[in-house]
Amino acid sequence: MIQQRVVSDDFLGKWQQTTNVMAGIFDVPAGLIMRVGPKQIEVLVSSHTPGNPYEADEKANLNTGLYCETVMATRAMLQVPHALEDEHWKNNPDVALNMISYLGVPLLWPDDEVFGTICVLDSKKRVYQERYLDLMWEIKRAIEADFKVIEQQQKLINSNIDLRDANQALSLSNAELKAALEKISVMQTELLRAEKMSALGKLVAGIAHELNTPIGNGLMLASTLKSNAEAISVELEAGVTRTRMRDFIGGVDQGAEILQHSLGRAAELVSSFKQIAVDQSSMRRREFDLKRTCDQILATLGPAIRKSGHQVLCELDGDIAMDSYPGPLEQTLVNLVNNALVHAFPDGSPGEIRITAHQQADDWIEMSVADNGVGISQANLLRVFDPFFTTRLGQGGSGLGLHVVYNQVTSALRGSVLAKSELGRGACFTLRVPRVAPHDA
Ligand SMILES: Nc1ncnc2c1ncn2[C@@H]1O[C@H](COP(=O)(O)OP(=O)(O)OP(=O)(O)O)[C@@H](O)[C@H]1O
Ligand SMILES: [Mg+2]
Known about the structure:
Blueprint: H1 9-26, E1 30-36, E2 40-46, E3 59-61, H2 67-74, E4 78-80, E5 101-108, E6 114-122, H3 130-238, H4 242-276, E7 286-289, H5 290-308, E8 311-316, E9 321-324, H6 326-344, E10 352-359, E11 364-371, H7 378-381, H8 401-412, E12 416-421, E13 427-434
Parallel strand pairs: 8-10
Antiparallel strand pairs: 1-2, 1-6, 2-3, 4-5, 5-6, 7-9, 10-11, 11-13, 12-13
Helix pairs in contact: 1-3, 3-4, 5-6, 6-8
The structure holds adenosine-5'-triphosphate (ATP) and magnesium ion.
């Protein structure tokens, strides 16, 4: 099927000039450029010449015996000097407009499809000389050269459109990517929150469980004491013996002692729990010398250390001036040294605990508390920071020490803590904390 080619106004203007000049040179009333469509042929350009019966945009049906139809079908020049003298042409539609002579050539698009024709028509008999025929071919070639330009332009526009489409597709997939990323980050936050919630849930359950024993014991004792008191008050009416009274008082005394112990244990637990929640507002920030702080801690732990028989070595780079929270740092070191004293040397053989600290190039401090004791198994190493993880259950261990350490180091000091150990080769806890704690805490 023939497709109608699109021509821009620029070219229409140029061709208007060409057809005007052509009509002038050929000395005819009508010079035309025709464009063929699927069903019709139209006057694309009509010369502005006196007596021209054709107007631009006029259309004529195909298959009606037009001069141009023959030119397009044969793709050859057609010259009809006088239609009325020619049996084949005397009834063609243009005769009705008194256009009885015709000279026209086909216009071919660069892909060799027919675009239409260019022609001159006259109301009188015309036989054109050879050089006019040559001129007609030249004009045809000039217009076909323009077709090539038009096609190039069209290709450019199309590739631009392709580019734009590709660009659009790209930015679309970019947007999709961005949306996916956002979704992932939301999911991550949710996961993190869920994880924290479940950790919190476990912690609360653990706390409840731990407190249950001392409080349960206390409650039971209190109700025993109460019923004992009721019994003795009834007996008092009838008069009680000295022995009975002594037994009663002895019972009260013993009960009170156990009660005291239970409540003491509960209070101890509560104070450990309180340490878990790092209370930012009660933390005091100040400048302090790391070595001096360490020495103070060791002085405090002195009696326990001496009693243990182990050696604690403090090997700190001098002059590390911290600007941070000494409270959490002290608590952390106390917990780590205490752990070494309690867990590292179960058979009582004398051991060594070494504390080191270095200031690093990035202004962070790396501190370690290492011992040469029994070490921690790989399976336990993964759990030492979990709340309530202890290997001394029922022997005074609540499994909160390292959990507190972890919270203090990460939340208060804004650093990190790592445990390294192998069974039989000691344990080493390494902290990395900024020398100057960030102020946006
Ligand atoms: N230096 C160490 N050497 C060997 N094992 C250790 C050492 N430090 C910690 N552990 C192990 O890690 C576990 C957890 O320590 P954590 O301080 O959290 O609890 P705990 O000392 O058992 O109890 P709590 O500190 O609450 O009294 C300990 O029970 C112990 O098994
Ligand atoms: Mg401990």
